[in-house]
Design goal:
Two copies of one chain form a homodimer. Chain A has 209 residues and is of the alpha/beta class. The first copy, chain A, has helices spanning 20-30, 60-68, 87-95, 106-116, 130-140, 145-159, 174-189, 198-206; strands at 9-13, 34-36, 40-41, 56-57, 72-78, 81-86, 99-103, 120-126, 167-170. A five-stranded parallel β-sheet of chain A has the order 2-7-1-8-9, sandwiched between helices. The first copy, chain A, has a four-stranded mixed β-sheet with strand order 4-3-6-5.
């Protein structure tokens, strides 16, 4: 049976240190038909970053024009730089039946909800506890106490928006969290409203085809 | 972490022969925390049937009283007999955090939707094709062509209500269908609105607990 499904827009948000990057990488590696959304940014490329893979690097004029022409699903200014999700590549993937993963914060998730709620699946990853989160932040970086403390309060702000998401995963063990994330993706694909390709098939069934 | 979740009401509907009984049995055997809903009926017990396990066997007066007192989540008259789902045992299971599975048709599903939509997860199982369905019906029973033909038109009537369900599974291979059914159950449990026990936990997180 030929499935002609439209892709999902999968938003993963979490405080940093809750394991989102690991889960995203594994989800992508286990699913052929899935792509990471690539943001546009006005900041300069860092060594090793590739245009079109890590970011679409554009200048401020180009970014402004894109805003004016409604080309962003969501965008934000962070310090002196702009970041945004261009609509075109996302729409192209969805139409090809590819799921697109968005690594964005609660503000981006809110904008996406207004721009494209039908395709959206919003998942929040919670840490098992704040001490565990701090331990993870400390173990992976050589940051000062001040930087860690700033990250922790940013994490609290992010967590305070957890109720705006469709699903919540508590990442105690990464294998369990990964299985849960996979189950959500499978279930969302099975929603009747997302299986419109079944309409003609069911028609053949009730006509005794 | 202690989870105090409320159970799900899982409705499985399908035309007969689409594999629902096999899937239901396997789901129950793989999940400790799941129970089959037991209907009340006015028909007489058949040999081997146990009261309270297969059905609650009641007389017509008792059934009428139960209808009047609103004790049924759904009920229907089939030929001369009444069938219905008593509310009490279901509510008890849900409060204990047990998922309850309902093997009911589209009419029962419609009544349940009005009675208890928040806890409800409605799944429709489709056969891969009507020829396959007829083959399955013929292989499992020694019914006459006339009986088979009646069942097939009843199947078509049932399938015509597929769009009233939240999820649709096409049962081509039972292993795949089983994995899909399991994914739906896991995902529904992860819905934010079904994880209210997380509220106090998140409070400890954002207070830096």
């Amino acid at each position: 049976m030929k499935t002609q499904r439209r892709g999902l827009m999968i938003v993963l948000s979490s405080p940093s240190g809750a394991g989102k990057t690991t889960l995203t990488r594994q989800l992508l590696s286990e699913n052929q038909n899935m792509a990471m959304s690539v943001s546009a940014t006005t900041r300069r490329p860092r060594p090793g970053e590739v245009d079109g893979r890590d970011y679409f690097f554009v200048d401020k004029n180009a970014f402004s024009t894109m805003i004016e022409e409604g080309e962003f699903l969501e965008h934000a200014k962070v310090f002196d730089n702009y970041y945004g999700t261009p609509r075109g590549p996302v729409e192209e993937s969805l139409e090809q039946g590819k799921d697109v993963i968005f690594d964005i914060d609660w503000q981006g998730a809110q904008q996406l909800t207004q721009a494209a709620s039908d395709d959206l699946v919003k998942i929040f990853i919670l840490p098992p506890g704040m001490q565990e989160l701090e331990k993870r932040l400390r173990s992976r970086a050589q940051d000062s106490d001040e930087v860690i403390s700033k990250r922790m309060s940013k994490s609290e702000a992010e967590i305070s928006h957890w109720a705006e998401y469709d699903y919540v995963i508590v990442n105690e063990e990464v294998e369990v969290a990964m299985a849960e994330l996979t189950a959500i993706v499978i279930a969302e694909r099975l929603k009747r409203k997302r299986q419109l390709w079944l309409n003609p098939f069911v028609k053949t069934l009730v006509q005794g085809g």
